[in-house]
Amino acid sequence: MTWKGKAGIAGLALTILLGTVIGTYFWQMRLQKPFDVNMAAMHHTGGMNGHEHGTVHGATSTGLQPSLSCEAIIAKAGEEPVHEIQLTAAQQVTKLDNGQIEEVWAFNSLTPGPEIRVTEGERVRVVLKNTDIQEGVTVHWHGIVLPCSQDGVAGVTQEAVKPGEQFTYEFIADHPGTYWYHSHQASSVQVEKGLLGKLIIEPLTNRFEYDQEETVLIQELNGTMLMNGSTQGVDIQASPGQTLRLRMINAANETEMIRVNGATFRIIAMDGHDLHEPEMLEHHQFQVAAGQRYDLLLQMPRQGKVIVESESGLKAALGSGNDPEPRSDYTLFSWTDYGTPDPLAPVENLTFDQSHTLELGQNLFVKSINGKSFHEIPPIVVKEGQRVKLTIINEGGGDHPFHLHGHIFQVLSRNGQPLSGSPVFLDTLATQEGETYEVYVKADNPGLWMMHCHNLMHASMGMSMMFNYEGVSTPYRVGTKTGNLPDL
Ligand SMILES: [Cu+2]
Hints:
This is FtsP/CotA-like multicopper oxidase with cupredoxin domain. The chain is mainly beta. Helix content is 8%, strand content 39%. The chain has three domains: 181 residues, Cupredoxins -  blue copper proteins (Immunoglobulin-like), CATH 2.60.40; 131 residues, Immunoglobulin-like (Sandwich), CATH 2.60.40.420; 121 residues, Sandwich (Immunoglobulin-like), CATH 2.60.40.420. Copper (II) ion (CU) binds next to loops.
């Protein structure tokens, strides 16, 4: 073959390859911005061109079951004391403590937004207003078990709240612990721009004793890592010998390795839920995945500071005096065999009504679950009262902290090995490449619930699906037609 002939064939091959890549890209991107999708029926009409195509999944689409609207599932009337808060979302320009100027979106002019602190059993009422965020905002209460209509997912449980509009959330703070809140409209954009905050539910009776407590939240604001809004970190006053509860929230997208130097400590809660008989740790580091919370109980030394430091260089300095000697040898904390089994919460001999395997991975341009993305992933459809086993496998593409809305699930095993320490109840499961976890979800909260990777960039690339209850419908729609794009 002549040189020209070879060049011609190579050129043709390159054109076909480029065409395929570009074609695949646009084919995948239509999923990110669908036209009109009902997340209860997952019957998508449209894609970008408005044609009817795709398949019908889920029970509600048969039209045989009586339909209960998510909108009608609200907090029960009651006499609980009401804790009312106003959150106003607005654009603003903020100067960080390193002098950097940032255009942010804030709740009540703050990022993180105001700390919401309530007591277990209270009725929480939050009036959300949007001043000037054109695409609309919502508030999702991360980790809270609440009625479907209050979950704050644009296009599933409500319309995004547009400028000049408002929405009132109401739920009972049933489970004490460390939580957070964030917008679930275009979440990968809006959380990074600053629409998030701490939510603490104080217990009526405390299993652990301590003299004081503090909360630190790690976030990524327009690419800059912050701890409680600071580029450096925080100084926390604490006296020698005191016991301090440190609540840590990872509201950023990547897993944070946290090191504690200068004190012994216990990890007393994960995702807000107390651990059973947690042992004392010394010279340990632990990983807090995106969306997760860890509560530490620290014993302040007789003299000197305690340093709690993240891999990204953010530091909480507790107490006063000299810093502890820097060290590099830390033991990695293992939560699957920490503490002791709780005789009151046995997990043996569970039988399941449904079992599903979810493979978290990636294709060419998307993050996927079982090879599919977004609303092309068939929803899990359950009935109230069912016991559901999920086998979650991380096939690659990074850490995938897997978050289920509206439920607290129990971790049963890691890589085939049953948990041997404290029972672990989570709303966000940290998974790393090659790991397999089994978790138990009790279907006890009828509604339409998102289940997605809490690296919100991964969610925005398709790692997001639904956990739906049979017979529950929604009047809301996801897509460019309504402008509700919860994962974008
Ligand atoms: Cu992920």
